[in-house]
Structure formats: C-alpha cells, structure tokens
Amino acid sequence: MDKVLKSCFPKKVLWRLTLTNIIVIATFIILSSWAIYNTACFLVEGMGQINAQKQNEFNTTLFQYLWIFSVSVIIMGSVVHFYITTKLIKPLNRLIESTKIMKQGHYPEPIKVKSDGEIEQLILHFNELVQQLKNNEQYRQKLISDLSHEFRTPLSNLNGYLNALSNGVIEGNPKLYESLQKESKRLTHMVEQFEILKEWDYASIQNFTERQQVDMRLLLEQSVEMFKWLLDQRGIKVDLQTDYGKVTVINGGIPQVISNLIDNAIRYYEGTGPIIIKGEALDEEYLVTVSGPSQRISEFNQEKIFERFYRTDSSRNSETGGTGLGLSISKEIVEHHNGKIGLISNQNYNSFWFTLPLGHIT
C-alpha cells in the first residue's frame, strides 16, 4: 500500500497541474483566437473592397488557421509543461521516499539538489532535519550508555554491601559506613550536576534569561575564598593575580565555572608549587587561567576532556575521577556566554583557561 501511495501521489499532483495548465492555456488561446478572428473579419469587411463570397472564404480560412494554431499551441504547451513539471516534481518523489524510510525507523541518505528553488530549499531543510535527528539519536544513545555506566558501579557496591549487611554476612563498622556514605554522596552529586547540565541545555535555547554585570576580579577572589579551608588542609598555596574587568553573566553560571576549575586543580594536584589563578583584561575579552602541577594529560585526552562523563583515568576511580561532568558543565556555561574554554598541557603542568566578552553580550 505504501508503495502504491508513494508512486501515485506525485503522479496525481503531476496530472492535476498539467490538467490545470491545459485548461488555463486553452482558455486564453481560444479567447485570443476568437478576438483575433472577429477583429480581422471586421477590419476586412470594413475595407469594402471584396464581395461577400470572398469575405466568407477569408473568414473560413482564417478560422481554420486559428483553430489549427490554437490546437497546436495547446498540445505543444501541454507537452512542454508536462516535461518541466515532471522534472520539478521528481525531487518531491525522492522526498516522499525518504519520509517513508524515516517512518520505518531508519535515517535516509541526504537528497541531492542541483538548483536553488523553493522545492530544493524544502529538501535542504529536510536534509538538515534528518541530520539533526541523527545527531540527537546518537547523543541520546551515548547519554543513556554513559548514565548506565556511571550509575552501575556505585549502585552495585551499595546493593552488594547492604545485602551482605542485611543477611549478616559481614558486620558493619565505621569505615564501611563511611565508604557507603561516600558512594551515596557521589550518586547524589552526579544527579545534581546532571540537573545543572540539563538547565544549561535548556537555557541555551532561551532568548530571555537573567543577566547582570559583575567584576571578574571580585568573582575570582570570592571563588578562591570558598576553597581556602580545603587548600589549607591540603597544604597548597595559591597565587592570585587579577585585573579589573566587567563582564555580563547569566544566572550565576561563571562562579561555578571558576569553582570547577579550581576544584580540578586541587583534586589532581601533584608536585610542588602554588596553583596560579590569573584574571587578565584583554582588548575585547577577559581571560581566566587556572594552572597547577598535576599529571600530564595526553593529546588524546585533551580533545575529549570537555565531553560529558569523560574522565582521564581509565579506571574511573571515584576518589580521583569525579563524575566527568564538571568540565562539560563549564563548557556549556562558557559557550552560552559567547566565550571559549580550553586546556594547555605542558608535561606535568596543566592550565585550564576560558574567555568571556568584556561588557554586554547579546
């Protein structure tokens, strides 16, 4: 049935267009021929130089020629129209075939177009829609796979230990309870970060969001102050160097970016020397850099490190690997502020940076 509909629909449209064109062309040609015939007959009759027999012969001959001319033009015009319309409707046939493929749950190949008409524009938009759907599907599958992987290990640990405790296989002790609490906190933290990521995904398509101008120097100082106790506990010094610079921020996202980068610098700190935090006001943008000694990040990991759920430790250690969402959230926030974010890795010294436009953003 689908094949019948697929083949009949363009043909129905084609015949309707052709029939409509024939009726319109025939009507105008007949009216024009009738006007020419009557005008010519009237003019010749008005000249008064031919008798009635000659007048009738002239009228009959003119009528025959106009009739032959009209029929010929109608037939030729209809054939040309049919040929042109067939070529115009051909892309619609491919569009219908692609739509049927999508209806069956598959993604069709892009439809090739050669011109820039309205139908071709429709097909181009259709190709873009199919590509967007494919990207969304790939993202959805990857997201489900990542979520499944991330939640499986801590949930298995919690269920295993809780079953063992409830069955009396093992006895509880403060160290075990502390470990279980850490796994529970990690799951909670992961859900919270995922909610933040979802909010910024939603914010990225909104035109009206709360904005305010802030001094980046103040934001950096406040962010460092929040980590003062943890830095003192770890015995890590901080070198803060900031310039004054006003930027427009949305919904308080930039303090979270700064906190994520500082938290990473502390979490992966190895070696000696301070963590250096710089805020530089350049010509048109404000540059923030968080640098510190840590493990070397390979070029492969540098390209992947801002992806969701990606962590540089292949073992996905919960103590050092976090949730793999912090940098991804930072990237979402910075890019939504029309900024850029990146990483410079030099042996055992890594520098995470991001830029924001100075002044207002659109």
What topology, given as strand order, has the largest sheet?
2-4-5-7-6
User: Please, how many domains?
Assistant: 3
The major β-sheet equals: 5 strands, mixed
Portion in helices: 55-70%
Indicate the radius of gyration in whole angstroms: 37 Å
The low-pLDDT segments are: 1-7, 314-321
Number of strands: 7
* Overall body shape: elongated
Say what oligomer this is.
single chain
CATH topology of the largest domain: Heat Shock Protein 90
The CATH architecture designation of the largest domain is 2-Layer Sandwich
Number of helices: 9
CATH class of the largest domain, named: Alpha Beta
Distance between the termini: 52 Å
Mean pLDDT: 76
Q: Supply the helix-strand structural class.
A: alpha+beta
Order of helices and strands: HHHHEHHEEHEEHHEE
Please describe the topology of this protein.
Blueprint: H1 2-47, H2 52-103, H3 118-166, H4 174-203, E1 211-215, H5 216-226, H6 228-234, E2 238-242, E3 246-250, H7 253-267, E4 275-281, E5 285-293, H8 299-304, H9 326-336, E6 340-346, E7 349-357
Helix pairs in contact: 1-2, 2-3, 3-4, 4-9, 5-7, 7-9
What does this structure look like?
By secondary structure, the chain is an alpha+beta fold. The protein folds into 3 domains: 2-109, no CATH class; 148-203; 211-357, Heat Shock Protein 90. Helices cover 63% and strands 13% of the residues. The chain has 9 helices and 7 strands. The chain has helices spanning 2-47, 52-103, 118-166, 174-203, 216-226, 228-234, 253-267, 299-304, 326-336; strands at residues 211-215, 238-242, 246-250, 275-281, 285-293, 340-346, 349-357. The protein has a 5-stranded mixed beta sheet with strand order 2-4-5-7-6. A two-stranded antiparallel ribbon has the order 1-3. A hairpin with a 2-residue loop joins strand 6 (340-346) and strand 7 (349-357). Helix 3 (118-166) packs antiparallel against helix 4 and helix 4 packs parallel to helix 9. The longest helix is centred in the first third of the chain and has 52 residues, at 52-103. The model is unreliable at 1-7 and 314-321 (pLDDT under 50).
